[in-house]
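Our example pasted here:


***
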Amino acid sequence: MPGENLSRDEARERAALLVVDGYDVSLDVRSAVGDGDFESGAPRTFRSVTTIRFRCAEPGATSFADLIAPSVTAVSLNGRDLDPSEVFDGSRIVLEDLAADNELVVDAQCAYSRTGEGMHRFVDPEDGEVYLYTQYEPADSRRVFANFEQPDLKAPFRFEVRAPEGWTVWSNGTGELTDGTWRFAETKPISTYITCVVAGPYHYVTDSYSRTFADGTTLRIPLGAMCRKGLAPYFDADDVFLVTKQGLDFFHDHFDYPYPFGKYDQAFVPEYNLGAMENPGMVTFREEFIFRGKVTRSSYEGRANVILHEMAHMWFGDLVTMEWWDDLWLKESFADFMGTFANVGATRFKDAWITFANRRKAWAYRADQLPSTHPITADIRDLQDAKLNFDGITYAKGASVLKQLVAYVGQDAFLEGARRYFKRHAYGNTRLGDLLSALEETSGRDMGVWARSWLQTAGVNSLTPQVLLDAEGRIDELAVVQEAAESHPELRPHRVAVGLYRLGSDGALERYARAEVDVDGPRTVVAELAGAEAPELVMVNDDDLTYCKTRFDETSLTTLREHLGALTDPLARAQCWSALWNMTRDALLPAREFVDLVLRFAGRESDIGVLQMLHAWANSSLVNYVAPEWRQTGERLLAEGALRELRAAAPGSEQQLAWARFLASVASGPEDLGLLRGLLEGAEKVEGLDVDQELRWAFLEPLAAHGAADESVLAAELARDDTASGRRHQVRCLAARPSEAVKAQAWAQVVESDALSNALVEATISGFSQPSQRELLAPYAEKYFAAIERVWAGRSIQIGMVVVRGLFPALQQSRATLDATDAWLAAHEDAAPALRRLVLEARDDLARGLRGQACDAAAADASTAG
């Protein structure tokens, strides 16, 4: 629809014209249950009546309200009835001849969603119960009620909801049921995209938090947590509340601004597209954070990090909100940094910075080398741009840069700047300069130079040590060389620690010298380390102070090849693994060598999150970067290694569980698959390994993909686990089977039909694309390029993104696929920029994989020749 993709210019014009004083939103969702009275093929709808009170700076002017709905029953502006067929085009309501003070009333039939956008409706297959929740970011509240859908037109909201009998309804404010309607307290001024409604027969647990401040006042916050009834037996609400209370204490200690939104509910909801969403007073999470089976400590750490990330948004994002999506980093980068900062400072997860260095930064490094990379403060032209910029740069690179900023200005100055920022802009909207001015006041530093280097340029620098020794074998000069990609040549200032490591008599590889230095320009000498004993390993970003790709000199690389497992410091070890992975992706290290390092040293990894990341990287090496002729050998070696470590791991340990899951991901031979089948059937045992329901599905997918588990086996497993989670697993396994008919059916379900929900679309795509089925999938490369523009035009942006990313023929790793991608891009220069971006990103991954394969093959040839 022409008006659905709101542009930045339109938003600025409307913000200059209008001030919104308040919303009254009345929803009737009783139609969510039962068969209803809907025409065949028509969407299931609910009634939405919205009253907006707003002022206009130029009486007589024309503007518009936003609404995406199947139909509008009535529109009234200042008591004047308007003809919906004349003023509503499917996404906008034209408002002409505005007065100084206005009241708009819109009565509409809005559609329930199956894509996780707007008002999502989920029917639980286990008991037939219906669950509703809303998800709006960046601009889907207009699918539920009429509004001015942009972040800088904040207003107070009053919601009321009529729901089926026996349901409970939650929103941002506290609510009560009177005369059959749930009525909620008026919110503080907030943006449309963080309003929220959750409704249904949810399992609900309560607690409370209180805090007495230095002035003697006491803040009491009612706490709630909820999930589907079917997940209630697995819901560890006590741990959710523990982290919640620890986070509230931490942020009150550091922000000096009491939590401003009354209650604090947290809903774990089905078929959720995101990790979570920071709706004030009513945070929503994907229900996969409720663990149905045994998981590692890393999963609990990840959940805690997300809880704290969303809590940080109550200040960074909800209390103070960016003016437009250009400054999305003002909320997401800060929340990503604060999630880890609070996790380390307040919870049991004291090693969360290791996870950040190893996992979050890997996301950032990948995003920052794509052709779509952008400055942290991005140029967001419209809502489609905004949707795609919830990426590794806005989140993880931004958080990395803030970590560097804390080192640059000092933690006290950083936090005092944040406190002033909250108090100065509470319930308002800001731009980059507003935060920088507060930080300049508290730090005394010129933040403009820092911002230009770190926030307003794109790309990642590489730092490499250069070591010159004197005649006595001591360091004569140690320098750090900084490089940048030709496409993004900015050389940035870095505050880094340079660490020197040697092997001790006990075989441990440990640091014996360290110096902090400001790296600026192409080459920086670290004078403090002159005269030190010759190192066997130099770390140029020791302690992970800056955001960069770390390289090694030849001596250091040789040391890691032989002694990586001897590094005693877990953060240094995690950084070395990350650096080696970046070298593999950059075709500087043969992929089979990375696989060999994993096989030799991953079993000694103490940090479970790092171990699981190594498993993912080893898999990616095999699928994307090793020479094709070595894949079968690599598969066998990884499977043998996984089985060896599985049997060696302590019974019942999380390492044992991680190796069992890794074995399932690489199993391909008769012996591996036979073991998995035996574990499922009980004929095989691994001491201490509990093959729970989630692990059963993990074992079934490779069996299905290799033709060792047919439809009847999967049907029997679904009968054992006929739940929403079980249905998703079964759909994935069904699509994984090696059959032309299976692949054709999966393709049709995703590309030619919109009958599947968002979760089942993702599950189908995941099963469809099996690395062991490259030849079977080859015909779909041509079909992909013929279909994607039609899919993008006809589906919601969320589903469009999932399909375009997920079905790209990445497994057809050849020059022909690259040429086909280039041909599509050349023939579709006028395609939607967001669609072109997705294809360009996929092309870049493919080209990178081909370079990696060439590097791997060349190294093998050189080894053979030698």
The two ends are 63 Å apart (CA to CA).
